[in-house]
Amino acid sequence: ATPTSIMVGTGRAAELGVLFRKGDALQRLEEVRVVAFDKTGTLTRGQPEMTDFAVVGDFSEAEVLAAVAAVEARSEHPIAKAIVAKARARDLTLAEPEAFEAITGYGVCARVGGREVLVGADRLMKREGVALGEMEERLAELARRGRTPLLAAIDGRIAAVIGVADPVKPGTPAAIAALHEQGLKVAMITGDNAVTARAIAEELGIDAVVAEVLPAGKVEALRRLRGEHGPLAFVGDGINDAPALAEADVGIAIGTGTDVAIEAADVVLMSGDLRGVVNAFAISRAVMRNIR
Ligand code: ADP
Ligand code: MG
User: Fold this and answer.
1) Is the CB of 82 under 6 A from ligand 1?
2) Which of 74, 158, 190, 234 is 20 to 30 A (C-alpha) from 21?
3) Where is it localised (predicted)?
């Protein structure tokens, strides 16, 4: 590609809110066969709501929600914000937790009023040796409805089943349909529950899902997708996404996301609307067509 055509292309892209940080991304984009998306904050709004909260055993609902929210008040995770918001809406008093710990990809734990409180995915309970009892089916039921299923435990006993929902962004279905029309495969990579991820992927017509990956696993998942389908673009927003953005043939960051993600990307979308991804591909094709 000539420097002039690339300049014109990147200029036109910028007018559409798509910033090419590296000129050769315009060329590499044309070779991409699969577009992999992070789920939370990229395909979805990243502002989940707590939709389900059911106490298990002889705990009281206010007692468990207060304990859970006291721990989550220390976490930066969007799930934590959703739970704390519900507790605040009910005017519950949140105690100061002690020995707070966030276990990436699993959940959080702390001591609240002398009791050991855990909140997170079922794998957190397994890891900490808490018996799941008959919870598996209740978790699966939430997940099939596209909710992220969580459990809370107090002093080693399950105390609540929690469901969190993160709505898909309004522009997401149209963006996926347009990528499909251009003959591209669309994939989703997430740390979320596998059944939840599949329910959302099915609703969106996504071709491949890699779920329950720890942050470090995203890069490996991308390599596998590349091996199967060819060159790939990855679209993400979070700190966790920076290694995947760097690994992808073209890394596309959402400009409303974290600085770390933006720094690692080749292309930055000025808005969270995923139709920017479609525009990036369209401009790449137009520029490359003019050159040949
Ligand atoms: P992603 O951003 O792709 O959803 P994360 O690694 O941030 O991946 O989270 C993966 C899973 O870990 C969540 O779906 C949830 O089950 C659990 N988790 C992480 N942080 C928390 C938290 N603060 N409270 C409850 N669960 C959590
Ligand atoms: Mg994200």
Assistant:
1) no
2) 190
3) Cell membrane
- Three-state DSSP at 290 gives helix
- The answer, as to whether pTM is greater than 0.95, is no
- Taking CA atoms only, the protein residue closest to ligand 1 atom 7 is 105
Helices (H) and strands (E) in the chain, counts: 12, 13
What's the CA-to-centroid distance between 91 and ligand 2, angstroms? 30
Output DSSP code: residue 16: T
Q: Of 19-28, 102-111, 158-167, 193-202, which range is least confident?
A: 19-28
Q: Has 38 been annotated as catalytic?
A: yes
Q: Which domains does the chain have, with CATH numbers?
A: 3-45+168-291 (3.40.50.1000), 49-165 (3.40.1110.10)
- Residue 210 pairs in a beta bridge with 189
Q: Quick check: 61 pLDDT over 70? A: yes
DSSP H or E segment with residue 118? strand 115-120
Q: How many CB atoms lie within 10 A of CB 48?
A: 24
How many CA atoms within 13 Å lie on the side-chain side of 166?
27
Alpha helices in 91-241 (DSSP H): 122-127, 135-144, 172-181, 194-204, 217-229
